[in-house]
Amino acid sequence: MASTPWIEGAILLKRLSAVIGGAIVILSLSYFVNESGYLLSTGFPGLADIIIIVSILGALLSGIALLAELPNSLRVRFRRVSVRRNPEKVYGFGTIVAIGIGATLGSPLFILIPLNVVQYQIASIGSLVLATILSLLMAKIYGRNYVFTSKNNLDSVGGPGFLKAATGKNSFRYFLSRFSMAVGNTALAAYSAIVFVLFDFEVLPGILSGYGITGLASQFFLYLIAALFVGWFILNSVFESRFIRLIGRIQVIFTGILVVILVLNSVRLGAVNSWNFSGILSTVNLPGGNLPYALLINTAYLYLLFFGFQEIQAMEREALEKSSIPVLSWIKKDFTLEKTKYIPLAMIITVVVASLVNIFYALAAYTAHQSLSALQSVQIPALYLAREELGLGFESSMAVAFLLATFTTFVPAFLAASRHISSLAEDGFMPQWLSRVSWIFVLVSIGLLSIAGEGFLVNVTDFMVLVSLGMISLSAIWLVKGKSALGSDFLPVLVGIACFGAVAGIYLRDPSVAVFGSLAILIAYLLFDVFELGSMGVELFLGIFNLVLYTFLTIYSHGFVSQNFFLFKMLGIQPLSPNVLAEIMVLASALLLANYVVNIRLRSRKELLSQFAPQ
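Structure (tokenized):
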């Protein structure tokens, strides 16, 4: 069908809407960062503050809705290399355990544990033990849920899948769990990216100089490491299905080397000072001045080190139906376990091994008795400890371990976030096109979250993941639905309460994270309601919603007294005025309503059916 001026105008409108929508998303996120910093510095928000926050949320959703018009206006679609719907089953018990341990022993270990154990002594060790217990109970629930869903032919890949099986894909409980996991994994990927850049360009040159490698040779080595990191990311994210066997074997090698280095360095580090634990029982510097309070907030903080076992559940489709078990298969020839038995076992073993390594290293790090101020002044405390106590060679080995941990943390976190977004799109909560470009969406989100800094990202990851895990724990009760019972309801309730209690601990440690997390939950609820309206319903709703917010913005004045976000400084927006936000609301509303009118005409005439087809 030949193009008409009206058709060309519709295409131009949608492309313009997408470009402006992208700018609105960036500006609204900028406003949010700036305004949240202002609110946290002034105390309880007033009516004008609440209106500003809601308006920022409306602008963000409007920008996303306008961005959704982009695929409808392009004749060429950019897609990720296609992944088979039924991936090849190649992973056995040993490979799955290795991948689970590698995803759990991540780069945060090298930064959080040395600082935490020196600062909080026995409370730090106690928190690691409590986090281990919580993870073991959670892994047990995951295993029970998986066995139940598998026997009842319910699709439940990934933890939120249990909620989908229990409550249906149109449930807000499922949506919140999936959305929270997406945000949490994106924050973890952003954290891993930040610490990798710090290591590669700030820490590694010092290590290389110890071996006499400087100048161009040093620069070549740094960029080579960065290229390997990018290459590993591309191999996993783009060509995963094609090289699935190779990726599994490399993961086993990476994890084996990582565990060996951590254990050997822990043994040597503790032996230097004859495992001197003097002062470890001190409670003088504990937050709140008492051990129970310190355990509450510290366990929530350190839980980031433990939830990697969930990656095993996400690999269920790639797992063999039956697998041999190392050692047991050597003792009893041809001994194998079915998938419903060895996957739950693999999750338990992952938690046990990773926890033992974490606790053992924490104890060894404490025996060094380094000053807290010295550890806080360096980028990666674990490398500093190795060099000060053991020498350059041990620091180099820990640098290798850190790289491997980063490789085995960033990619799984990125892929998990991408899969969660894709699942929401496939379930109809987001535009279908987003399932094909979810990896780009996650990459952009990582870039935006990276601005917040490492400490903020650690707490955000913990907050969102713990919220999701609390819901997933309770899914063990909701799954029954009159079928054969999973067992006592006590364990799911206990673990669910523990997860939500840990969330409260994060608030006590960092209220700003609780504000961000609570807003994320509110955004999730609003998104859930809005997406149920359909794409055209969203445009109409947000178009009117923005006009209402514009009215309130003009009635209730609000002045920005801070300028925390770099983008505002770069653009020279001074002073920060709600008038700019109000103008954004009007512009977004006009574009949304225009697209709504155009889409009604397009739907009735179906004139774009051939125009928008890929050519």
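Residues 75-85, 482-486, 561-566, 607-615 have pLDDT under 50 and may be disordered. The first helix runs from residue 5 to 42.
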